[in-house]
Predict the structure.
Amino acid sequence: MTSTLDHLDHLGPISLAELDARASLQTRVDRKYVVPADALGPLLRQIHPGARVLQIGADREFAYESVYFDTPELTSYLGAARRRRRRFKVRTRTYVDSRQSWVEVKTRGPRGATVKTRMPHDPDQRGALTPESLLFADSVLELAAIPGMGGAPFLPTLVSRYRRVTLHLPGDSRTTIDTGLVWADPASGADLDLRGVAIIESKTGSTPSSTDRLLWRHGLRPVRISKYGTGMAALHPELPATPWRRVLDRHVQGGHVQGGHVTAITPTA
């Protein structure tokens, strides 16, 4: 089976320290694209030749696991589904290979920019928020003027697992390529394996990156896809899902839960 890295082996490496120094982008504009797996190789071979691949030790591809937390009323999910201005996400993000974990709170900044604030978290506790993590989340949400969230109970509502390759682009932007995405419901054990597609994400300042322009030249346009929102909508079709309906219908059509698991999915486009 061809790996994402097979199409990027001509690119030089960049260390995590240099990547963070040059393109930390905790406040950024994200553009996301869903790419059929059979189109990924030809696209990646046209990535800007000055791009460099994040490399830690001998590894260039890394396993990620995110656990998303929400209130019993799904305040975070419904805020995104209904496009509320002051929406947010709370999650733990674990870099599985290095066993580093963070609790992260994502809010909306000026002009729709994503603002991510985080603190270290115990990887063995990534499925729960510790008292310290809850205090941290409360403080970030209060600072972002998210109303009514002080002391709110947060429960795990979705687990997202995938493999990621990260590129640094000239101009100090990032591109990530995610493959092997699996969404799982921590309560029921239902899961969904999203085969046949990759998610490419451009993380820039206000100016589009060379990756954006490459994808546009090939007729690919940014789509509304959220690993939390789209995953929840796919596993819970009774929820409102207007922002992600096009992605669900076009790329996740045909997946259905059977005996606590979702059958393999073939993208429709």
